[in-house]
Amino acid sequence: MRRSPLRTRPPADRRDEPGWRLWHAPVWGECAVCGKRDRLVRHHVVTEQKVRREGGGPWDLRNSIGIGIGYVCVCHRDHHNHPIRRIALSKVSVEAIEFAVELLGEPQATDYLRRTYAPAQPMLANCSQAHPWPLTGAEHHVGWLRDV
Hints:
Elements: H1 20-24, E1 27-30, E2 37-44, H2 48-54, E3 64-68, H3 75-81, H4 94-104, H5 106-116, H6 139-142
Antiparallel strand pairs: 1-2, 2-3
């Protein structure tokens, strides 16, 4: 089989980059999407390639969401393979949204997050769950996401 010139070199070894080992350390816990307990993977909210292109730190933990990768939870697989089953934007942490705004600027972050994640589910008035958005701190950054 003929190889493309781009595939003649192995991929870069990134293990010595700051934060790589912590990012890839095994994590067990509750999936941020469905709540099932399983092995978790730190999923880049803004893709590693885009973070590198914009000059950010690809292993910054603020840009992560812990989602299931094992047999019990298939949220990570579904997000990448099923466009209908994407992660809801309401499940993305405020820290990750702030990271996207810092890296890309508010207009580009808004566009990127709306294209990459499913629309947020509307909260019911009598819902007993905590409100997904903080009332202080990063309110000015995430106010535009409520209308998604």
